[in-house]
Amino acid sequence: MEVPCVRVRPQDGERTRAALADRGLVHDGYEITVEGGWLYVPVSDAEGVGAEYDVTTHDLPVREGQTLPADLLGFEPSYERIGTIAIVDEDDEDRARAIADAIVESDLPLDSVVNRASKVKGELRVRDWEVLAGGTETIHREYGFEYALDLATVYFSPRLATERHRVTEQTEAGENALDLFAGVGPFVIPFAARGAEAVGVDLNPAAVTFMRENAERNGVAERVTAIEGDVRELSGYDDWADRLVMNLPHSADAFLETAVRLAGDDCTLHYYDIQSDDDPFGPGEAAIRAAAEPEYDVTVENRHVVRSYAPHEENVCLDVRLTR
């Protein structure tokens, strides 16, 4: 059956498989196959893999003895995975129910199925879910870290795993790293694991509770400070940060004055934005310069497209050096 795969040379196969498995992306229902000098690793979410891998489709055999949702349905359902939860996006109630039943009855390691019932909404960035099987709590694994979360009370996107890894790999021991909209900690915890003093701020009390739990779960609690509240009211951290993350792409510009207040003498800012593909970086760069200059010299070190957000709209990141 033609399924999404990551294609690598065989000598890189085990390292790639392990990295994808850490993120919960290896599809358990199909065999890893070598053909024509390439190894094909089946993945459950092609969009979530990221640009660092060669993603293609290939005809892979079903793992022997495995029953997949498609075997029970007669068609290949579309779903996303977070931990042990399958997320579907179906308008037809009967079709959604049939997919949920098939996923649970299959041999995949998924015990819950939810259907999107609303868009992300409100200042806490959560959405409504129709629970078709199981519940909304799970443990998500990503690049060797574990994140407990509840989809009913917090926002989390597994599709940003590669981007989070790109940013956190730049962090060095001894840095002061601050995430202005930290959620359950997927930036903060890797920052701390690399030896940074990490602070995460979020309005959502449920997210902050999970952030603290996840810091303990990943053995970095001594270097993580989780703060509930509006980051614009944060005190005690002026001129503190060596690294700032602003992953609130629809409205991060409203918090740039706060970011400048928190930045130290030499600070790297990771600013996320959603803009038209005609000029995806210009508005964000102009907003940063307006907030930071002339107090800081502003150097854009990297202009990075994270993913396509909608037709003619791009989710982008500006990596910016602020030097006082």
What does this structure look like?
The structure is a single chain. A seven-stranded mixed beta sheet has the order 13-12-11-14-15-17-16. Strands 2-3-1-4 form a four-stranded antiparallel beta sheet, covered by helices on one side. Strands 5-6-7-8 form a four-stranded mixed beta sheet, with helices on one face. It is globular and about 65 Å long. The chain is α/β, with parallel strands linked by helices. The chain contains eight helices and 17 strands. The model has no long low-confidence stretch (mean pLDDT about 95). The chain starts with a strand and ends with a strand. The longest helix has 13 residues, at about 95-105. The protein has helices at about 15-20, 70-75, 95-105, 160-170, 190-195, 205-215, 255-260, 280-290, and strands at about 1-10, 35, 40, 55-60, 80, 85-90, 110-115, 130-135, 135-140, 145-150, 175-180, 195-200, 225-230, 240-245, 265-275, 295-310, 315-324.
Keywords:
alpha/beta, seven-stranded mixed β-sheet, four-stranded antiparallel β-sheet, 17 strands, globular
Write the layout of secondary structure elements.
Layout: E1 2-8, H1 13-22, E2 33-35, E3 38-42, E4 54-59, H2 69-73, E5 80-82, E6 85-88, H3 93-105, E7 112-116, E8 129-133, E9 137-142, E10 145-150, H4 161-168, E11 176-179, H5 188-193, E12 197-202, H6 205-217, E13 224-228, E14 241-246, H7 256-262, E15 263-276, H8 282-292, E16 297-310, E17 313-323
